[in-house]
Amino acid sequence: MPKRTFKQPVKLDPGDVKNLSQEDLVAILRGAENLIGAGGRNLLCKILKGSSAKEVLEHGMQNNPSYGYYSDHSVEEISHYVDRAILDGYFEIAYSGKLPTLVYSAKGLMIEMNTIADEWFNTCAAMVEAGGPYLMVFLKDCNRQTVFRLLDKIAEDGNKRFIPFLEAWKGNEVKKVRSRINAVIRELEGTGPKIRKHFDICFVDESVDEFVFYRLRMNDTFRQDCDQYLFIKDTHPGIQDIEIIRRLLNDRSCLLSADRALHNAALNHGRFSFFLDREAATITTQPLEGIKPRGILSAPEPISDKVISFSATPQETSRCYRAVYPDTPTRQKKMRTKRRRIRNYFGGNANMAHAAITLSTLPCQNRGGQLTGIRIRITALSGGIKALDACELYVWDKESDPLAAWCHALILMIQLQLTDIPIEFFFDTYCLAPPEEAGSGSKWSSLFADLLVDFTPEPVLTACPKGSLIERLRSKLQVLKRTETNEIVDSDLEKIARDWPSFK
User: Fold this and answer.
1) How far is Cα 292 from Cα 386, in angstroms, rounded to an integer?
2) Rounded mean pLDDT of 154-163?
3) What is the pLDDT of residue 218?
4) Alpha helix (H) residue ranges in 63-174
5) 144-157 vs 162-170: helix axis angle to the nearest 10?
6) 3-class secondary structure per residue, 163-216
């Protein structure tokens, strides 16, 4: 029977250190380079203190650039700074046997690689200024992402004096690094196009179809140099556009999107974005003219993370939602598009103050039955966001039943996942009665009652005999009644009613 190993617990104490300056953070991360996966917090504190302890000197840690950075602090004070860096997510605790060791987190590693690339650039620039010799042993067998960062910095510097250095370097490198070096040389010589920056991750937006993306890659239309491509619909389902910009994009990641407003907003926030024109099959990194971000992307007031929730998992759905969800791929795609448009405009349901639903019906003489019209307008809670005409729906029923119109309105709100915001129905009193009156003798009364349970708070009903919104909806129904159009969808209440018992 294997011997049980008891891991030594770690108790973190940041003391009075609430925040780390960028300079302190870089020094702490740099000091940990020699002990990652092998040493812990105590050893890092000794390095930052400038200790002459045996375990520091035996492993040459006195040559670390951060050695003695906190020489005027006590070891206890230094431990508070280190623990703050751990609590802020720049390090993670890993165990070697029973002893805890430090490893970089993803964001900590990113800062460390940028720091090393800066140091390498300064070393290379000094060799170039001296005219050689070019001693590049330190670049051999190094982390490739850090090497690409160094090449990005050389390209951005634009100094042609780096060309002999690059020629001497590429002779001992692997094919992919040689290709990158040659691209930088061509850019410095002015004989080739300005190379695009190398990125660790390219996030592919939900607006880009997966099949279209892979076709672009196969045809070499999208030539961006990235280590990894991630589809947001898989990695961060339900995330709002503003959170894509704030949380996913940084100087080492980029966005591929077919959403014009999101592309322009990402560029406005200093992020790198590629816009895909699906019709022309072209890609650009330039801002699009005439496209102004709306909603949460253009709100003048900052919205706190407490208001905008970051969702890394799909939203929980009720039994009613699963029962009324569209059953055809085309209608499912349209509903997903509508939900995403509303969610991105407001940055989540928490920013929605009120939904006003205008509801009316009209006898459909040419087809029989009735035509139901539903329009939804949502106002914002804060952030200076204008109200949004969120959705409209026109449904044909074979039979004239006023309660069917009420059911269609509730079903649409459930499909849009808007059941947790205050809702007010403005119903056309010329053709509709309140549900308690319309439900008398209706075969949909039980279905309506079940649907209503999903709403918190319960919707408010307001009789509306006239007004601009109700008049506009009546006019629209009159036009649809006389024309052949694909705006009208057939009622699926019969199917929902047949399947309903299986969802109870």
Assistant:
1) 14
2) 84
3) 66
4) 75-87, 106-130, 144-157, 162-170
5) 150
6) HHHHHHHHCCCCHHHHHHHHHHHHHHHCCCCCCCCCEEEEEECCCCCHHHHHHH
Q: For residue 397, list its beta bridge partners.
A: 370
- Bigger pLDDT: 318 or 105? 105
Long-range CB contacts (< 8 A, 24+ apart) of 367-371?
367/396, 368/398, 369/396, 369/397, 369/398, 369/399, 369/400, 370/396, 370/397, 370/399, 370/400, 370/401, 370/404, 370/405, 371/395, 371/396, 371/397, 371/477, 371/480, 371/481, 371/488
Tokens of 333: 């795609």
- Span 208-242, pLDDT tens digits: 888 788 777 766 667 677 878 899 888 887 788 88
**Pair type for strands 226-231 and 199-204:** parallel
Q: Write down the CATH number for the domain with range 319-503.
A: 3.30.420.10
Answer whether residue 2 shows pLDDT above 50.
no
Same fold, 22-104 and 319-503: no
Question: What is the 3 state secondary structure string of 420-432?
Answer: CCCEEEEEECCCC
Q: Give the residue-averaged pLDDT of 40-60.
A: 87
What stretches of 255-294 show up as alpha helix (H) in DSSP? 260-268
Give the separation between CA 379 and CA 419, rounded to whole angstroms. Answer: 15
Over the range 70-93, which residues count as b (16 or more CB within 10 Å of their CB) and which as e?
A: beeeeeeebbbbbbbbbebebbee
Domain locations in the chain as residue ranges: 22-104, 110-189, 199-293, 319-503
∠ Cα 48 49 54 (to 5°): 95
The beta strands (E) that lie in 364-408 are given as 370-380, 388-397
| Separation of CA 91 from chain center | 23
CATH 3.30.479.30 fits domain 22-104: no
Give the tokens for residue 365. Answer: 């003489």
Phi then psi for 389, rounded to 5 degrees? -75, 95
pLDDT score, position 312: 46
Contact 203, 254 (CB under 8 A): yes
Amino acid found at 247: R
Q: Spell out the SS3 assignment of 7-67.
A: CCCCCCCCCCCCCCCHHHHHHHHHHCHHHCCCCCHHHHHHHHHCCCCHHHHCCCHHHCCCC
Mean pLDDT of the 382-388 span: 79
Query: What DSSP designation does 90 have?
Result: S
Hey, which bits of 381-475 come out as E strands? 388-397, 423-428, 460-464
Q: Is the pLDDT of residue 112 over 50?
A: yes
Paired with 423 in beta bridges are: 355
Count of CB atoms situated within 10 Å of the CB of 62? 13
pLDDT band at 394 (very low <50, low <70, confident <90, very high): very high
